[in-house]
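hey so i finally got around to running both of the ones u sent me last week. sorry it took forever, my laptop kept dying halfway thru and i had to restart like 3 times lol. anyway pasting them below in the order u listed, first the sequence line then the structure token line for each. didnt double check formatting much so if smth looks off just lmk and ill redo it

first one:
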Amino acid sequence: MLAESIKAAARSVAGEVREIRRQIHRHPELSFQEFETARLVHEKLSQWGIAHETGIAGTGVVATLEGRNPQSRCIALRADMDALPIAEANNCDYCSEVVGVMHACGHDAHTAMLLGVAKILNDNKERFEGRVKLLFQPGEEKLPGGAMAMIEAGVLEGVEAIFAQHCYPDLPCGKIGVCAGAYMASCNEINISVRGQGGHAAKPQHSQDMLWIAAKTMTELQFKVRNFMPKKTPYLLRFGQFVAAGTYNVVPDEIHIKGTFRAYDEGMRRAAIRFMESFVNEEAHYYGVNAEVRINQGYPFLYNEKTLKKQVKEIALDYLGRDSVVELEPLYTSEDFAWYSHQVPAMFYRLGTSNAGMGITGKQHTSTFDIDEDSLEIGTGLMALIALRNMEG
């Protein structure tokens, strides 16, 4: 039985996968600086005799495994490699050795598991048709994201479907999370600067009420966008920074505001951006101040193809047993795997990694994030089985 065979294979590589993950965790690298991580990937693939290319989109690595009749079909599996500018607060023997940088999102695990998948598939090439591309991608955490650069480098050429798994501390180790359709939102970075005449707060005749104007613009924007967006169209507009360098009796000349806009519809996303830009400029003109609006486009929304979601769910149930799969709701977080999902059929699923009994409960993008390393064996085997099921002759 294929599932049992892959379980045995995943068990046999589990120790090496764990050591690879720990090595990467000790030596995290920021987005587009994954030189040593890429070197490690290259060394492992070379050791196992797996054909690959390096230097893709900077530090990316692409390996290709060929089964029977290599031109018949092609799928891709993706892992991201970058870390975050966060100081690790965990106390373990594989903690980050780089000051102010840690793998707080699980990309070290993603890279290690995909290497484990590479080894398993390489040992089972007689069991599948076509080709499997393994994408070790840089820069997921930093706009514009490494996925777009990989696509521009041609990594999706001939690819009929792409899969990725992501560590998920909201689920315990042993569980898999899936969602069909629009799963993760697009993101845009909102930057607003309001400039006018500041001065002594007690002499209003000589200055404009800059903070009130900027605050009213920010709060009115929330209200206006709510009316602009069609009813029942999900979106998110939130502000995270309001910087006014004044004091008790000093009104500043300028205020800077930062926020985020997220949606699941690309057309409405573009329309909302145009509306926000127009509204802020109109408000500034009305109050006699100047406004600069810059809205940086981030990743598009991530779309999970429905038949691939159904397939992954069935494979996970077969591999892990009854009650192992959780149906997830869409999230407002974003992920650059979305770029792939707008090019070819895609499936991005979640791998449960927490363990409350072991105290492994830290959330992603926090200084205490870690994983139950038993999830590495689960993720390695499941992804290998997904690839083989897709490539069966």
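and the second one:
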Amino acid sequence: MSEETLKTTPLYAAHIAAGARMVPFAGYAMPVQYRDGVLKEHLWTRTHAGLFDVSHMGQARLKGQAPLAAFEQVTPGDFKGLKAGKQRYSVLLNSAGGIIDDLMAARPDDNGLFVVVNGACKDNDFAVMEQALAGLVEIERLEDRALMALQGPKACAVLAAYIPQAARMVFMDSIAVEGFGTDLLLSRSGYTGEDGYEISVPASEAERVWTLILTDERVRPIGLGARDSLRLEAGLPLYGHDVDETVSPVEADLSFAVSVKRREAGDFPGSARILAELTGGTARKRVGLKVLEGAPAREGAEIADDDGRIIGIVTSGGFSPSLSIPIAMGFVPQAFALPGTRLRAMVRGKPQHAEVTTMPFVPHRYVRKL
């Protein structure tokens, strides 16, 4: 996609002013890093607070007579049981039980279901929902809103100075609130493994709010490069890389997204495959790998057993700034998925010792109770 056809977020001018290096991502010109560079941005987020522009993602309201019940026709989560003020992670499924996308859905108020989907998938996601839920819900795409994420151990203190209610929220709370002189949709969640918040704000107010948050010396702008290394350390999958329409929630180690109530009912897309995998296991599983020598094993690198037989593939990989070692995620047969299993990562044709490890690589620091 040429530079002329890339879309821009409402924060584009702010990124340019801050010296960001812009790259194409999901059809948008997005900041991959700022002047500090990816390594420093990553470590700053782990110790202070990082501010991310995620306005490329798709935001929508699902409205109608019973939007929560309707949403269960395309996801395996218990949305009829979703309480007001709460948010839930889920997956949009195809009829074969493959993942069309992963998403967040919340009830910040009484105005239907607030859904956030991945930027590269949003047009297809909403088309799938519209077709499957025709006559049941109205999908109002919120093209006039920006989305930013404030992540890190200092995020709560920073945000609570402007929005006192933020300090009273716990992980996966979601509220509609006035803050920074405008209306916000605020959730205590994120994609880094750190405590933090995602803030939906009117596009017209986005640059002002962004600039105001950055006046706090504990906050720095963070680009896509550090966002990727942070989510990798947190063991969080990236759609289109670690999961796609061929991968089921069970294979992806996302079985928690299939609620107990829905398992019992068996009334979600691809339920036959997914329920069989829950009871009988899968041929492959997403695992974490510590690469014990050499260069990082990146996406596409083959995984071999100790005898040199190719058994799997790396779907995400890189250097962990927090651990100072290469780490990766990928798919291997179930027999090789046990933590401690010794494998080989093929990097530029050279086998490098690797070991299956539990995820996350770096412990999550979500605030689950006050």
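quick thing i noticed on the 2nd:
Residues 51-206+237-281 form a domain with the Gyrase A; domain 2 fold (CATH 3.30.1360.120).
anyway thats it, ttyl
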